[in-house]
Design a protein that fits this description.
The protein has 346 residues and is mainly β. It has helices at residues 321-325, 338-342; strands at 15-20, 25-34, 37-45, 55-61, 68-74, 79-88, 91-99, 108-114, 124-125, 132-133, 144-150, 155-161, 168-174, 179-186, 192-198, 211-217, 226-230, 239-243, 245-252, 271-278, 281-288, 295-301, 305-312, 330-337. The strands form 6 sheets. The chain has a 4-stranded antiparallel beta sheet. It has a 4-stranded antiparallel beta sheet with strand order 2-3-4-5, with no helix packed on it.
């Protein structure tokens, strides 16, 4: 435990550094490796809340340390947020969500594509109306699967596509009000694991009903072999990766309790944290240097290392979530040896 209360696991050695700290509220990252370079996308905005000034910022780096801005993409006068990257049929695709509400309630997924990362098509609708796509993944390079949730319908599902632009429903995850952001990953045996942020009412001070739904399926991914709910955290803005076993990165609330600090409370302190994921639930492994408004990670696995992008307020100031939403945030990267994950037993 360091001086600001972040649980740094000695058995998980990491290096972390700041990529962007320019006074903006920089948030909602994603990360991938393509054409011999790291690519990172995030949102630059005045605050966590909706703004027509928000922009997607795309960066490129050969070593994940020195970064160059490639382009900025706007929502054409609307708030734009939650970008995700994918490479499908030799094109780099960026997905993002459009939003009209000050306290964000996105209503549509849009997508643009590029052959080189520099020249981009116009945004077009990328999913059935109202469905909000997460990061697409593929077990075979031929069929792509994306998690999606629909705020008005109160449902989360897995969609499938051959081109990343036209999607159809493969399986529903949860069909009750409260299902939210979802991430999925395939392991070496092509089994699919999904984690879904579970809300429980609109309360600003959290709720004991909040948590994370864990769903596991084998091909052809039409029914779930396992579903359960973990209350270790409400895994906001989740990212998943498979490295010997399944791991999640997302928002964690280390202290829960009392009328004002239920799970998901805006008054509580938050972390970006790493968890192991299994049928036994989520197991907290370590925090990344983080505080305030934080999480929404991207993950890249190389032959020997794991790279994680995320955003946070100044990690040296352990402020509440709501304080952080109104203050500048940094984009940071963490690097860890893959051997630390391969040897982890959760």
């Amino acid at each position: 435990m360091n001086k600001t209360g972040q649980a740094v696991e000695p058995a998980l050695p990491m290096q972390t550094w700041t990529v962007v700290a320019d006074g903006m509220h920089n948030a909602f990252t994603d990360l991938l490796y393509w054409q011999n370079a790291f690519w990172m996308v995030f949102v630059a905005s005045p605050s966590h809340f909706a703004s027509p000034k928000s922009r997607l910022v795309l960066l490129r780096s050969a070593d994940a340390i020195q970064w160059q801005e490639v382009t900025r993409l706007s929502g054409d006068g609307q708030d734009i947020r939650d970008p995700k990257l994918a490479v499908i049929h030799d094109h780099l695709l960026v997905y993002a969500l459009l939003n009209r509400a000050f306290d964000p309630q996105p209503y549509q997924t849009i997508c643009a594509q590029s052959r080189d990362g520099e020249t981009w098509s116009r945004f077009t609708d990328a999913a059935p109306a109202g469905w909000l796509l997460g990061k697409p993944q593929t077990p075979d390079g031929a069929t792509w699967y994306a998690p999606a949730h629909h705020l008005k319908q109160g449902a989360a599902c897995v969609l499938q596509s051959k081109d990343g632009l036209r999607w159809e429903t493969r399986a529903f995850i949860y069909e009750k009000i409260g299902s939210d952001e979802t991430a999925l990953v395939f392991d070496a045996q092509a089994s699919l694991t999904a984690v879904t942020r579970l809300e429980s009412g609109p309360g600003m001070f959290g709720s004991p009903g909040c948590g994370t739904i864990i769903s596991i399926a084998r091909p052809p991914y039409e029914k779930w072999d396992f579903q359960g709910t973990s209350t270790v955290t409400r895994l906001d803005g989740p990212a998943l990766f498979s490295c010997g076993q399944t791991y999640a990165v997302g928002r964690f609330q280390p202290q829960i309790g009392g009328r004002l600090h239920g799970q998901g409370s805006i008054l509580s302190r938050k972390r970006t944290s790493i968890f192991s994921v299994s049928q036994h639930g989520l197991t907290h492994l370590a925090d990344l240097p983080s505080s305030g408004d934080t999480a929404y990670a991207g993950v890249v696995l190389t032959d020997k290392e794991v790279f994680i992008s995320y955003y946070t307020n100044d990690p040296a100031r352990d402020m509440s979530w709501i304080q952080g939403m109104l203050r500048p945030t940094q984009i940071r990267l963490a690097r860890m040896p893959m051997s630390a994950f391969l040897g982890n037993k959760g």
